[in-house]
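Why do we care about 3D structure at all? Because function follows from shape, and shape follows, mostly, from sequence. That is the central idea of this module. The next example makes it concrete: a single protein chain, its amino acid sequence, and then its structure expressed as C-alpha cells.
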Amino acid sequence: MTEDYGGLVGAFPYAFRASDSRLFRSYVVVGTVATAAVSLLFVTALVGVIAATSGGRGGSLTLSRSFFAVVGLFVVVPLVAPVLLVARRHRRTGSTDRYDAALATTGYLFLLSLYVGLVISVPPSQQTTPAGPLAPVVAALYALPQYAGVVPPLVAAALVGLCHRLFR
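And the structure:
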C-alpha cells in the first residue's frame, strides 16, 4: 500500500483499504456519514445565523458567527481524526489492527458522547418524560446543568488523542 491518499478526502478510502480491522472499516463508513451530516447541519445553521444577523453591523454579531464556525470545527475534527491518524500511520510506518481498532473505538465513543452532550443540553421546555429501560439514565442527564453538555465530547476528544499516543 504505497500509494498516497492525496489529501483529506482521499484519506478516507485509503484508510478503508489499508486497514485490516473490521471495526475500523466500519468506523470509516459511519464516521464519513456522521461527518457529512454534522458538516451539513453546521453549514445550514451557519447560513441561518448569518441570515438572521445580516442587518447588524460587526461587533458581537460577527463574533457569534465566528464562534459558531469554531464550534463546528471542534465537532468535526474529532470525527475525522481517527481516520486521518490511521491513514497517516499506514502511509508512513504501517499500522497494527490493535491501533486501528483502538482509534475506531474512540471514534465511536466520540459519536456517543455527542449524543450524550445533546441530551444534557436539551432545554427544560423541550424535555420529554423518559420511558423505557434507559429512563433513569436520561432522567439523570436531564438533571445536569445544560452547560455540562460540553464535558462528554471534550473528554471523548481528549481520549482520541490519548489513544493515539498510547497505541502508536
